[in-house]
Amino acid sequence: MGLLDAEPGSVLNVMSTALNDTVEFYRWTWSIAAAALWWYFVSKGVEYLDTVFFILRKKNNQVSFLHVYHHCTMFTLWWIGIKWVAGGQAFFGAQMNSLIHVIMYSYYGLTAFGPWVQKYLWWKRYLTMLQLVQFHVTIGHTALSLYTDCPFPKWMHWALIAYAISFIFLFLNFYVRTYNE
User: Fold this and answer.
1) What is the pLDDT of residue 158?
2) Which InterPro entries does the UniProt record give (predicted)?
């Protein structure tokens, strides 16, 4: 007996079950995204400690305005993000930023092997370029979300665009000072 041969009540039961399964999958997916964003926030706290350790070790040459601004604001802003809007719009940026940080910390990990590995690490400037691309993609993604009327709070969209622009200026300044001198 197929679905079309079933009694009308049976078709309704099948549709109701399918809808419930879809809703449960949606809830499960959002809970996974929220959990991933929570761990992303924790990683921002660990990165914040990076600044504290630089200060405690008196490595003041590594504590730039960009470094402090980035680590202090990311930790605070992601607390706001996971507190009120942990979900799809926030997940995209966190994924992209995590990928950039995996590449960046891989680079720094390789530099720890010393001069015999460092001579092969010619690609640091491209890592900075990748970070700049990330900020432009963030602005594009956020602008598209505004255009499509995403339910993410509008003020957060505009704040994210302004925040990404501030990073573009800061990272461009870093790039010019580091690689064009």
Assistant:
1) 94
2) ELO_CS, ELO_fam
